[in-house]
Amino acid sequence: MATAENYCEPEGPIIELLKTLASRDLKEMAIISDSKLIEILKKDFYMDTTVLHKFEMDVYVNVLKEHIKKWPGWDNCDRNINRIKTIKDKAAVAMILKKEYVKLKEYLQHLLNVTQELAADKVSELKEKENLKKEQIVMEVFASRQQMNNLFYRYPVRNNIFNINVKRRKLNMQNTTLKSILNWYGVEITIKVPMNDKWLVFERRNSHKLRHALMNKKLSFNMHKNIKLDQNALVKLPEHSIKILKSQMLKIFDKAIYENPDYKYILPIIEYDLVKLPKTLNIPFSLRRYTSKYSFIRYLYSDVPLEDNLMKYDIQLEEIISPMCEFNIDFSDLNDSFTLDNPIKVICTECDVTFTNDFMSELLNHFKNKHYEDPDWICMNCKKVCPVKSLTNSGWNHACELV
Ligand SMILES: [Zn+2]
Ligand SMILES: [Zn+2]
How much is the pTM? Predict the structure, then answer.
Protein backbone atom coordinates (compact mmCIF):
# COMPACT_ATOMS: atom_id res chain seq x y z
CA MET A 1 0.00 0.00 0.00
CA ALA A 2 1.22 3.46 -0.81
CA THR A 3 2.20 5.69 2.04
CA ALA A 4 2.74 9.41 2.20
CA GLU A 5 6.47 8.79 1.92
CA ASN A 6 6.11 7.23 -1.55
CA TYR A 7 5.13 10.58 -2.94
CA CYS A 8 7.23 13.66 -3.52
CA GLU A 9 5.78 16.93 -2.42
CA PRO A 10 2.36 16.66 -4.05
CA GLU A 11 1.28 19.09 -6.73
CA GLY A 12 -1.89 19.41 -8.72
CA PRO A 13 -5.59 20.18 -8.28
CA ILE A 14 -6.31 17.61 -5.54
CA ILE A 15 -3.75 19.02 -3.10
CA GLU A 16 -4.87 22.52 -4.09
CA LEU A 17 -8.42 21.52 -3.25
CA LEU A 18 -7.36 20.24 0.18
CA LYS A 19 -5.35 23.40 0.82
CA THR A 20 -8.37 25.54 -0.05
CA LEU A 21 -10.54 23.46 2.21
CA ALA A 22 -8.01 23.80 5.02
CA SER A 23 -8.34 27.55 4.82
CA ARG A 24 -12.14 27.39 4.91
CA ASP A 25 -14.86 25.42 6.59
CA LEU A 26 -14.74 21.94 5.06
CA LYS A 27 -18.47 21.54 5.22
CA GLU A 28 -18.84 24.31 2.71
CA MET A 29 -17.21 22.36 -0.07
CA ALA A 30 -17.99 24.24 -3.24
CA ILE A 31 -19.29 22.46 -6.33
CA ILE A 32 -16.28 21.41 -8.33
CA SER A 33 -16.58 22.52 -11.93
CA ASP A 34 -16.21 20.10 -14.85
CA SER A 35 -13.08 21.91 -16.01
CA LYS A 36 -11.54 21.43 -12.54
CA LEU A 37 -12.41 17.71 -12.68
CA ILE A 38 -10.80 17.40 -16.12
CA GLU A 39 -7.73 19.07 -14.65
CA ILE A 40 -7.69 16.43 -11.88
CA LEU A 41 -7.79 13.67 -14.53
CA LYS A 42 -4.91 15.30 -16.39
CA LYS A 43 -2.64 16.44 -13.61
CA ASP A 44 -3.33 14.01 -10.77
CA PHE A 45 -4.01 10.87 -12.80
CA TYR A 46 -1.86 11.67 -15.84
CA MET A 47 -4.65 10.91 -18.31
CA ASP A 48 -4.18 12.19 -21.83
CA THR A 49 -7.63 13.71 -22.15
CA THR A 50 -6.99 14.64 -25.79
CA VAL A 51 -7.09 10.97 -26.83
CA LEU A 52 -9.92 9.82 -24.54
CA HIS A 53 -13.25 9.02 -26.18
CA LYS A 54 -15.92 11.60 -25.32
CA PHE A 55 -18.03 8.93 -23.61
CA GLU A 56 -15.08 7.78 -21.49
CA MET A 57 -14.28 11.35 -20.52
CA ASP A 58 -17.92 12.04 -19.50
CA VAL A 59 -17.96 8.87 -17.41
CA TYR A 60 -14.74 9.78 -15.57
CA VAL A 61 -15.90 13.33 -14.92
CA ASN A 62 -19.26 12.12 -13.61
CA VAL A 63 -17.64 9.46 -11.43
CA LEU A 64 -15.36 12.09 -9.86
CA LYS A 65 -18.25 14.53 -9.46
CA GLU A 66 -20.44 11.87 -7.84
CA HIS A 67 -17.86 10.24 -5.61
CA ILE A 68 -15.42 12.89 -4.50
CA LYS A 69 -17.98 14.11 -1.96
CA LYS A 70 -18.70 10.56 -0.84
CA TRP A 71 -15.13 9.76 0.11
CA PRO A 72 -15.47 7.82 3.39
CA GLY A 73 -12.35 9.61 4.69
CA TRP A 74 -13.92 13.10 4.75
CA ASP A 75 -14.93 12.95 8.43
CA ASN A 76 -11.44 12.02 9.47
CA CYS A 77 -10.00 14.57 7.07
CA ASP A 78 -12.35 17.19 8.52
CA ARG A 79 -11.01 16.49 12.03
CA ASN A 80 -7.40 16.61 10.85
CA ILE A 81 -7.93 19.81 8.90
CA ASN A 82 -9.59 21.43 11.90
CA ARG A 83 -6.52 20.47 13.87
CA ILE A 84 -4.40 22.29 11.25
CA LYS A 85 -6.14 25.53 12.06
CA THR A 86 -4.60 25.46 15.52
CA ILE A 87 -1.09 24.54 14.27
CA LYS A 88 1.32 27.19 13.19
CA ASP A 89 4.05 24.75 12.14
CA LYS A 90 4.09 24.83 8.31
CA ALA A 91 5.89 21.48 7.93
CA ALA A 92 3.37 19.73 10.18
CA VAL A 93 0.50 21.23 8.17
CA ALA A 94 2.09 20.06 4.91
CA MET A 95 2.51 16.53 6.32
CA ILE A 96 -1.15 16.30 7.40
CA LEU A 97 -2.36 17.55 4.02
CA LYS A 98 -0.02 15.16 2.23
CA LYS A 99 -1.41 12.19 4.16
CA GLU A 100 -5.00 13.18 3.35
CA TYR A 101 -3.97 13.74 -0.27
CA VAL A 102 -2.54 10.22 -0.53
CA LYS A 103 -5.69 8.64 0.91
CA LEU A 104 -8.07 10.66 -1.25
CA LYS A 105 -6.02 10.01 -4.36
CA GLU A 106 -5.92 6.27 -3.70
CA TYR A 107 -9.69 6.23 -3.27
CA LEU A 108 -10.22 8.10 -6.55
CA GLN A 109 -7.61 6.00 -8.36
CA HIS A 110 -9.45 2.82 -7.35
CA LEU A 111 -12.74 4.28 -8.60
CA LEU A 112 -11.20 5.29 -11.91
CA ASN A 113 -9.63 1.82 -12.35
CA VAL A 114 -12.96 0.09 -11.79
CA THR A 115 -14.70 2.59 -14.09
CA GLN A 116 -12.12 2.07 -16.78
CA GLU A 117 -12.67 -1.71 -16.70
CA LEU A 118 -16.43 -1.38 -16.74
CA ALA A 119 -16.43 1.23 -19.51
CA ALA A 120 -13.91 -0.59 -21.71
CA ASP A 121 -16.46 -2.70 -23.61
CA LYS A 122 -18.78 0.23 -24.21
CA VAL A 123 -15.92 2.40 -25.44
CA SER A 124 -14.70 -0.21 -27.93
CA GLU A 125 -18.30 -0.79 -29.04
CA LEU A 126 -18.75 2.95 -29.65
CA LYS A 127 -15.43 3.21 -31.44
CA GLU A 128 -16.36 0.24 -33.62
CA LYS A 129 -19.70 1.87 -34.49
CA GLU A 130 -18.01 5.16 -35.32
CA ASN A 131 -15.48 3.38 -37.54
CA LEU A 132 -18.33 1.61 -39.30
CA LYS A 133 -19.97 4.94 -39.92
CA LYS A 134 -16.75 6.18 -41.46
CA GLU A 135 -16.68 3.09 -43.69
CA GLN A 136 -20.16 4.04 -44.96
CA ILE A 137 -22.79 1.53 -43.98
CA VAL A 138 -24.64 0.34 -47.06
CA MET A 139 -27.43 -1.46 -45.26
CA GLU A 140 -28.41 -2.37 -41.71
CA VAL A 141 -30.09 -5.71 -41.03
CA PHE A 142 -32.13 -6.34 -37.89
CA ALA A 143 -32.56 -9.97 -36.95
CA SER A 144 -32.89 -12.03 -33.82
CA ARG A 145 -29.92 -14.16 -32.91
CA GLN A 146 -31.84 -17.28 -33.92
CA GLN A 147 -32.76 -15.81 -37.32
CA MET A 148 -29.13 -15.08 -38.06
CA ASN A 149 -28.29 -18.78 -38.04
CA ASN A 150 -29.81 -19.19 -41.50
CA LEU A 151 -30.30 -15.67 -42.75
CA PHE A 152 -27.82 -15.61 -45.65
CA TYR A 153 -27.60 -17.76 -48.77
CA ARG A 154 -24.10 -18.91 -49.41
CA TYR A 155 -24.49 -17.96 -53.06
CA PRO A 156 -26.99 -15.38 -54.41
CA VAL A 157 -30.23 -16.95 -55.62
CA ARG A 158 -31.74 -14.79 -58.37
CA ASN A 159 -29.64 -11.88 -57.09
CA ASN A 160 -30.91 -12.33 -53.56
CA ILE A 161 -28.77 -13.30 -50.61
CA PHE A 162 -31.52 -13.30 -47.94
CA ASN A 163 -33.13 -16.58 -47.03
CA ILE A 164 -36.67 -15.75 -46.04
CA ASN A 165 -38.03 -19.30 -46.23
CA VAL A 166 -35.94 -20.66 -43.42
CA LYS A 167 -36.49 -24.32 -42.70
CA ARG A 168 -35.10 -24.87 -39.26
CA ARG A 169 -34.90 -27.94 -37.10
CA LYS A 170 -36.75 -27.60 -33.81
CA LEU A 171 -34.59 -28.01 -30.72
CA ASN A 172 -34.28 -31.68 -29.84
CA MET A 173 -35.11 -31.81 -26.16
CA GLN A 174 -33.93 -35.39 -25.70
CA ASN A 175 -30.35 -34.33 -25.28
CA THR A 176 -31.01 -30.84 -23.89
CA THR A 177 -30.55 -30.50 -20.16
CA LEU A 178 -32.20 -27.94 -17.95
CA LYS A 179 -28.77 -26.60 -17.09
CA SER A 180 -28.23 -26.02 -20.82
CA ILE A 181 -31.43 -24.01 -21.05
CA LEU A 182 -30.60 -21.87 -18.04
CA ASN A 183 -27.24 -21.11 -19.68
CA TRP A 184 -28.82 -20.47 -23.12
CA TYR A 185 -28.40 -17.13 -24.87
CA GLY A 186 -30.54 -14.42 -23.27
CA VAL A 187 -31.92 -16.48 -20.36
CA GLU A 188 -32.19 -14.64 -17.05
CA ILE A 189 -32.96 -15.88 -13.55
CA THR A 190 -34.34 -13.64 -10.80
CA ILE A 191 -34.91 -14.77 -7.22
CA LYS A 192 -36.49 -12.57 -4.58
CA VAL A 193 -36.75 -13.62 -0.97
CA PRO A 194 -37.71 -11.58 2.08
CA MET A 195 -34.89 -10.35 4.29
CA ASN A 196 -35.72 -8.04 7.18
CA ASP A 197 -38.23 -5.58 5.71
CA LYS A 198 -37.00 -5.78 2.09
CA TRP A 199 -36.64 -8.24 -0.76
CA LEU A 200 -33.20 -9.70 -1.26
CA VAL A 201 -32.91 -9.87 -5.04
CA PHE A 202 -30.54 -12.18 -6.90
CA GLU A 203 -30.27 -11.72 -10.67
CA ARG A 204 -28.23 -13.80 -13.06
CA ARG A 205 -28.03 -13.24 -16.78
CA ASN A 206 -26.08 -14.67 -19.68
CA SER A 207 -24.78 -11.48 -21.20
CA HIS A 208 -22.50 -12.92 -23.86
CA LYS A 209 -20.57 -10.55 -26.08
CA LEU A 210 -21.32 -11.20 -29.76
CA ARG A 211 -19.58 -9.83 -32.83
CA HIS A 212 -20.72 -10.28 -36.41
CA ALA A 213 -19.16 -9.73 -39.81
CA LEU A 214 -20.71 -10.66 -43.14
CA MET A 215 -18.02 -11.75 -45.55
CA ASN A 216 -17.42 -13.21 -48.93
CA LYS A 217 -14.94 -15.93 -48.10
CA LYS A 218 -13.80 -16.08 -51.71
CA LEU A 219 -12.37 -12.60 -51.31
CA SER A 220 -11.07 -12.56 -47.80
CA PHE A 221 -10.43 -14.73 -44.86
CA ASN A 222 -10.24 -13.03 -41.53
CA MET A 223 -7.25 -14.00 -39.47
CA HIS A 224 -8.24 -13.43 -35.89
CA LYS A 225 -5.85 -12.90 -33.10
CA ASN A 226 -6.83 -15.26 -30.33
CA ILE A 227 -7.11 -13.04 -27.29
CA LYS A 228 -7.27 -14.67 -23.89
CA LEU A 229 -10.41 -13.58 -22.03
CA ASP A 230 -9.86 -12.15 -18.59
CA GLN A 231 -11.83 -14.49 -16.34
CA ASN A 232 -11.35 -12.28 -13.32
CA ALA A 233 -14.51 -10.70 -12.16
CA LEU A 234 -15.25 -7.07 -12.79
CA VAL A 235 -16.89 -5.92 -9.60
CA LYS A 236 -18.68 -2.63 -9.25
CA LEU A 237 -17.76 -0.72 -6.13
CA PRO A 238 -20.85 -0.29 -4.00
CA GLU A 239 -21.40 3.01 -2.27
CA HIS A 240 -23.24 1.95 0.84
CA SER A 241 -22.89 -1.75 1.19
CA ILE A 242 -24.12 -4.39 3.57
CA LYS A 243 -21.83 -7.36 4.01
CA ILE A 244 -23.33 -10.82 3.67
CA LEU A 245 -21.67 -14.23 3.65
CA LYS A 246 -22.44 -16.44 0.66
CA SER A 247 -23.36 -19.27 3.02
CA GLN A 248 -25.75 -16.96 4.85
CA MET A 249 -27.34 -15.96 1.57
CA LEU A 250 -27.86 -19.60 0.57
CA LYS A 251 -29.50 -20.22 3.95
CA ILE A 252 -31.88 -17.31 3.33
CA PHE A 253 -32.78 -18.76 -0.09
CA ASP A 254 -33.18 -22.22 1.42
CA LYS A 255 -35.46 -21.05 4.17
CA ALA A 256 -37.65 -18.95 1.90
CA ILE A 257 -38.06 -21.14 -1.14
CA TYR A 258 -37.12 -24.74 -0.40
CA GLU A 259 -40.76 -25.71 -0.77
CA ASN A 260 -40.95 -24.18 -4.23
CA PRO A 261 -41.32 -27.07 -6.71
CA ASP A 262 -38.67 -25.68 -9.05
CA TYR A 263 -36.13 -24.72 -6.44
CA LYS A 264 -34.28 -28.02 -6.74
CA TYR A 265 -33.54 -27.28 -10.41
CA ILE A 266 -32.29 -23.77 -9.79
CA LEU A 267 -30.31 -24.48 -6.61
CA PRO A 268 -27.38 -26.37 -8.24
CA ILE A 269 -26.93 -23.52 -10.75
CA ILE A 270 -26.82 -20.90 -8.01
CA GLU A 271 -24.53 -23.01 -5.85
CA TYR A 272 -22.17 -23.38 -8.81
CA ASP A 273 -22.31 -19.61 -9.44
CA LEU A 274 -21.68 -18.81 -5.80
CA VAL A 275 -18.55 -20.97 -5.69
CA LYS A 276 -17.09 -18.56 -8.24
CA LEU A 277 -18.06 -15.46 -6.26
CA PRO A 278 -16.10 -14.01 -3.33
CA LYS A 279 -16.80 -15.48 0.12
CA THR A 280 -18.30 -12.28 1.43
CA LEU A 281 -20.54 -10.18 -0.77
CA ASN A 282 -21.18 -6.47 -0.40
CA ILE A 283 -24.79 -5.70 -1.24
CA PRO A 284 -25.52 -4.06 -3.64
CA PHE A 285 -23.24 -6.44 -5.48
CA SER A 286 -22.67 -6.42 -9.19
CA LEU A 287 -20.28 -8.66 -11.05
CA ARG A 288 -19.68 -9.91 -14.54
CA ARG A 289 -17.08 -12.38 -15.70
CA TYR A 290 -16.12 -14.30 -18.81
CA THR A 291 -16.95 -17.93 -18.23
CA SER A 292 -14.50 -19.26 -20.79
CA LYS A 293 -10.79 -18.73 -21.30
CA TYR A 294 -11.21 -18.12 -25.02
CA SER A 295 -13.87 -16.92 -27.44
CA PHE A 296 -15.66 -19.22 -29.88
CA ILE A 297 -16.26 -18.67 -33.58
CA ARG A 298 -18.61 -20.08 -36.22
CA TYR A 299 -19.78 -19.32 -39.74
CA LEU A 300 -23.49 -19.12 -40.45
CA TYR A 301 -25.11 -19.61 -43.85
CA SER A 302 -27.87 -21.44 -45.73
CA ASP A 303 -26.55 -23.86 -48.26
CA VAL A 304 -27.93 -23.66 -51.81
CA PRO A 305 -26.86 -25.53 -54.96
CA LEU A 306 -23.89 -23.81 -56.51
CA GLU A 307 -24.23 -22.55 -60.07
CA ASP A 308 -21.00 -22.37 -62.06
CA ASN A 309 -21.21 -18.67 -62.78
CA LEU A 310 -21.39 -17.86 -59.09
CA MET A 311 -18.06 -19.37 -58.14
CA LYS A 312 -16.91 -15.93 -57.04
CA TYR A 313 -19.18 -15.98 -53.97
CA ASP A 314 -19.14 -17.76 -50.67
CA ILE A 315 -21.19 -15.56 -48.34
CA GLN A 316 -20.96 -16.39 -44.66
CA LEU A 317 -21.85 -14.58 -41.49
CA GLU A 318 -18.98 -14.81 -39.06
CA GLU A 319 -20.09 -14.87 -35.44
CA ILE A 320 -17.74 -14.63 -32.46
CA ILE A 321 -18.99 -15.16 -28.93
CA SER A 322 -17.22 -14.28 -25.69
CA PRO A 323 -19.38 -16.00 -23.07
CA MET A 324 -20.14 -13.82 -20.08
CA CYS A 325 -22.30 -14.19 -17.01
CA GLU A 326 -23.55 -11.28 -14.94
CA PHE A 327 -24.78 -11.25 -11.34
CA ASN A 328 -26.57 -8.54 -9.43
CA ILE A 329 -27.57 -8.81 -5.80
CA ASP A 330 -29.54 -5.98 -4.26
CA PHE A 331 -32.42 -5.06 -2.01
CA SER A 332 -35.76 -3.87 -3.32
CA ASP A 333 -38.91 -2.55 -1.71
CA LEU A 334 -41.61 -4.99 -0.72
CA ASN A 335 -44.27 -3.27 -2.81
CA ASP A 336 -43.53 -4.81 -6.21
CA SER A 337 -45.10 -7.64 -8.16
CA PHE A 338 -43.21 -10.47 -6.45
CA THR A 339 -44.96 -12.45 -3.76
CA LEU A 340 -43.80 -15.32 -1.60
CA ASP A 341 -45.66 -17.63 -3.98
CA ASN A 342 -43.52 -16.73 -7.00
CA PRO A 343 -40.03 -16.02 -5.70
CA ILE A 344 -38.31 -17.37 -8.84
CA LYS A 345 -38.61 -15.91 -12.33
CA VAL A 346 -36.92 -17.21 -15.46
CA ILE A 347 -37.02 -14.94 -18.52
CA CYS A 348 -36.26 -15.85 -22.12
CA THR A 349 -35.26 -12.39 -23.30
CA GLU A 350 -34.98 -13.50 -26.94
CA CYS A 351 -38.70 -14.26 -27.01
CA ASP A 352 -39.66 -11.86 -24.19
CA VAL A 353 -41.44 -14.55 -22.16
CA THR A 354 -41.40 -14.79 -18.36
CA PHE A 355 -41.88 -18.03 -16.45
CA THR A 356 -42.75 -17.93 -12.78
CA ASN A 357 -43.78 -20.44 -10.17
CA ASP A 358 -43.98 -24.07 -11.31
CA PHE A 359 -42.31 -22.97 -14.51
CA MET A 360 -40.09 -25.91 -15.32
CA SER A 361 -42.44 -27.76 -17.67
CA GLU A 362 -43.53 -24.52 -19.34
CA LEU A 363 -39.93 -23.49 -19.84
CA LEU A 364 -39.03 -26.85 -21.40
CA ASN A 365 -42.10 -26.64 -23.66
CA HIS A 366 -41.18 -23.13 -24.71
CA PHE A 367 -37.72 -24.24 -25.81
CA LYS A 368 -39.19 -27.29 -27.53
CA ASN A 369 -41.68 -25.21 -29.55
CA LYS A 370 -39.98 -21.85 -30.06
CA HIS A 371 -36.28 -22.58 -30.22
CA TYR A 372 -34.20 -24.30 -32.88
CA GLU A 373 -31.09 -26.41 -33.16
CA ASP A 374 -28.05 -24.16 -33.00
CA PRO A 375 -24.85 -24.63 -35.05
CA ASP A 376 -21.64 -25.81 -33.35
CA TRP A 377 -19.02 -23.39 -32.12
CA ILE A 378 -15.26 -23.71 -32.60
CA CYS A 379 -12.86 -22.79 -29.81
CA MET A 380 -10.64 -20.03 -31.16
CA ASN A 381 -7.69 -21.43 -29.23
CA CYS A 382 -7.66 -25.22 -29.71
CA LYS A 383 -10.00 -25.24 -32.77
CA LYS A 384 -12.07 -28.00 -31.18
CA VAL A 385 -15.69 -28.22 -32.35
CA CYS A 386 -17.96 -27.53 -29.37
CA PRO A 387 -21.68 -28.32 -29.72
CA VAL A 388 -23.77 -25.59 -28.12
CA LYS A 389 -25.49 -28.08 -25.84
CA SER A 390 -22.25 -29.24 -24.29
CA LEU A 391 -21.06 -25.64 -23.90
CA THR A 392 -24.28 -24.50 -22.22
CA ASN A 393 -24.35 -27.63 -20.06
CA SER A 394 -20.88 -26.79 -18.75
CA GLY A 395 -21.84 -23.13 -18.14
CA TRP A 396 -19.73 -22.16 -21.21
CA ASN A 397 -16.66 -23.38 -19.38
CA HIS A 398 -14.93 -25.36 -22.15
CA ALA A 399 -11.90 -27.21 -20.84
CA CYS A 400 -9.44 -26.03 -23.47
CA GLU A 401 -6.79 -28.56 -24.34
CA LEU A 402 -4.26 -25.96 -25.43
CA VAL A 403 -3.06 -23.56 -22.80
ZN1 LIG B 1 -37.44 -18.18 -26.07
ZN1 LIG C 1 -10.25 -24.82 -26.67
Answer: 0.65
